[in-house]
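Technical appendix A lists one of the benchmark inputs used to test multi-chain prediction within the project. The record comprises two sequence entries:
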Amino acid sequence: MCKAGRPDMKPAYPQAGSYPQFADLVDTERSQVDRKVFHDEAIYQAELRQIFGRAWLFLAHESQIPGAGDFVRTKMGEDDVIVVRQRDGKIGAFLNSCPHRGNRVCMVDAGKKARGFICNYHGWSFGIDGRLVGTDGKVYDTDPDFEKHAITLTPVAQVASYKGLVFGTFDPNAPSLADWFGPFTWYLDVMLDNDPEGTEFIGGCIRSEIECNWKFPAENFVGDILHAYWTHQSGAQAILGGGVDLGPQYDERAFQASIYGHGIETNLDKTGNTKTLGYPELVDYVFSQYDKAKDRLGETRARMVGAISSCTVFPNFSFLPGQATFRVWQPKGPNKIELYTWTLVNKSMPEHIKELYRRGTMMTFSPGGVFEMDDGENWEYCTKANEGWVTRHQPLHYALGISSKIDAPDLPGHIHRGSLNDANQRYFYTRWAEFMRFDNWSDLMTAETAPPAKAAPGVAAE
Amino acid sequence: MSLTRLCALADLGPDKITRVEVEGRSPVALALADGGAVAFDDTCPHADESLSQGWVEDGRIVCAVHFAEFEIGSGKAHNAPIGCGRLRFYPTEIRDGAVHADLAD
């Protein structure tokens, strides 16, 4: 430091490495996952580098920031970011950290019409485009060696939207958001494109902490509907007024689909998820919209709109079709998450229907919600118990449905018959292992989890 | 009234503020508003920052550094840091496609 040369203030995007020893903890031959992946600090640090440093991560819904200067704060991995609508209508995202001493420049969760962000420490002022526009008292500005134009909040390397949902990645070399999803958009459209006017988030963001590893909720939503019949039996009985059964609708007209580790499990019962919000009027509403959705999406996907179903977009963005809850499992160390949740509705829904969705998601999937509490306790004990010294050496079983893969030419991705299946969870961990093993996108996009080539008519036609 | 030629009208753009150096005095800023050109001190009355970094919004000039807003015409400050004075505006006239202003004290 005492040589005192000029600083290089270019944003830096860390390179990925390769961790074959961690990748090998997912044993695809035996359908087993090593318990160490749920508590080991070194593995967690590798996840921040390999996964959260590269993957497209959910940032916001465009409806949250309609006007110039409107912003939300969120996390990408453990990095604090500001997502802000620019004056030209595009969306920018920046690290919430001043390039001077690192202090946060934005301390509120969300706001409208921000003019910029001023660091509380030395008054460095940044525009909503991230550029440094001023320094307090102009002491820096009058230093002839100060290169103000070279200083900016670090931009998230790429930001892009898919039908209202905004994602970002810290990797300038990551493939486009469209390539990242691949044909998985065919399934996302069940929620995002069943109506021509599109979707919006309503109400605010509910946040809570759960002392679990982030992968437990992600794997649960990617393809574990089986847990509902035990975990949620009492809650479901209270809301639905009767028991739930493992009927043929979870076998004969149900499947799991996986593409690049993203996964959705669903049956085709039209309103099973919506029923659990507890408002018969909502169920009637979903039925009333069925023909319209069918014209737009075809029969299979129209039946999924309100059905018993759950989805995770790798790595940590999940939602429940029909229940309308969208969430991110933000990692906070190997054994803690901060859960961000929102309610998504179609813009064209009548106000009282939107309000019922909002109330329904609060009563079921919020910190005090019936089903959230059921799940959280299980995930916390999964995380804690796996850490035991002897316990951590024991195998875990992810082998339900290992012979259930089907061809299903009409459905994109790797398809397994029946929604009661561990298939998507196996693909999720296979994807996790691919991220641990590969340091480049060429390998990542052609690995085992990549979608099989098939001319799915649904994709070609839409 | 003595008019000073500042720049060609064509040099001004919607939604941007153009700074013009004027010999013997502090720089002047120009913007398109109210169907014509408006002229005002480029130096923000709050902390000496250049208003040319800012923009025009809803009839106000917005300073990009500490976010004070000034009503076009009266120069009255809104949402401004403590101690921020009024922004001075100057009468303008378009002659031969150029913006002129009366910069007299």
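The interface with chain B takes residues 87, 115-116, 118, 125, 127, 133-134, 137-138 of chain A (CB under 8 Å). The mean pLDDT of chain A is 94. Comparable benchmark entries are summarised in Table A2.
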